[in-house]
Amino acid sequence: MTAGAPATRTTEALLVDALSAGYGDTQVLWDVSLRVDPGEVVALIGSNGAGKSTLLGAISGIVKTWSGAARYGETSLTGLEPDRIVSAGVLQVPQGRRLFGSLSVEDNLRMGAYLRKDREVESDLKRMLDLLPKLRERYDYLAGRLSGGEQQQVAIARALMARPQMLLIDEMSLGLAPVLVDQLIELLASIHQTGVSILIVEQDVQTALEVSSRAYVLETGRITLSGPSAELLDDPQVKKAYLGV
Ligand SMILES: Nc1ncnc2c1ncn2[C@@H]1O[C@H](COP(=O)(O)OP(=O)(O)O)[C@@H](O)[C@H]1O
Ligand SMILES: [Mg+2]
Q1: Three-state SS across 32-45?
Q2: Which atom of ligand 1 is nearest to the CA of 51?
Q3: Choice from 53, 65, 203 to test ligand 1 binding pocket (greatest atom count within 8 A of CB)
Q4: Backbone angles phi, psi at 43, to 5 degrees
Q5: Of ligand 1's atoms, which has the minimum distance to the CA of residue 55?
Q6: Per residue in 55-90, pLDDT tens?
Q7: Poorest-confidence range of 92-106, 122-136, 154-168?
Q8: Distance, CA of 132 to CA of 183 (rounded, Å)
Q9: Which CATH class name applies to 14-89+164-243?
Q10: Domain ranges, ordered by start, for the chain
Q11: How far is ligand 1, taken at its centre, from the CA of residue 85, in Å?
Q12: Average model confidence (pLDDT) for the chain?
């Protein structure tokens, strides 16, 4: 498409290279490396406290990286302010939803687009409501008044309003009824079809491995296993530790 492509092309979308991070004096992540290719859905699985949220935080600039690096395409994310990382196209849907509870659903969605300078915010809003009809019904409700599942839908829709190229999703299914999880998975599939790359963190390992093409296992801050999700679903170690079979 473009003439004179650079000699060193980056093929991956997100690359995390030997990243270490922690809080205060306590190291949480040890030389974590992973990659997400363009348009790929990759799962990061691991027990509570393994460091999954810390890793997403380090990628999105909320947690300070001690050593190692993260980059998105040609952009080094390490040391960038969180806003700049969002502008680079990488956006996190935080664990626990964190909506503006005293604002309406509409205002929450509009907040998602606050860094955008294009004029397609209105048409994107309409697309979100087409994708998530429940939000149309709840458009004027205060976000704090919604059920957990509805709040999670708002959180994802709000993230999408920023038009990210790479979405980091932390514990999407936590505390939600299975029927809602199914709806969110359909939503993920439709997001994926628009070409967005997704790194999904899930304690529901079955779900995570079903929606992703590849996965990484994080144990006490280290990647201990990685591979095609279908293979990990069959892996005896994964089955025993995470699938309860
Ligand atoms: N803000 C924080 N300050 C200090 N320690 C933290 C903070 N957030 C998480 N931790 C600690 O870091 C470790 C990893 O936590 P976390 O990344 O939340 O794991 P996970 O998301 O896999 O459950 C845990 O021991 C946790 O207690
Ligand atoms: Mg977490």
Answers
A1: EEEEECCCCEEEEE
A2: 17
A3: 53
A4: -105, 145
A5: 17
A6: 999 999 999 999 999 999 999 999 999 999 998 999
A7: 92-106
A8: 9
A9: alpha beta
A10: 14-89+164-243, 99-162
A11: 21
A12: 89
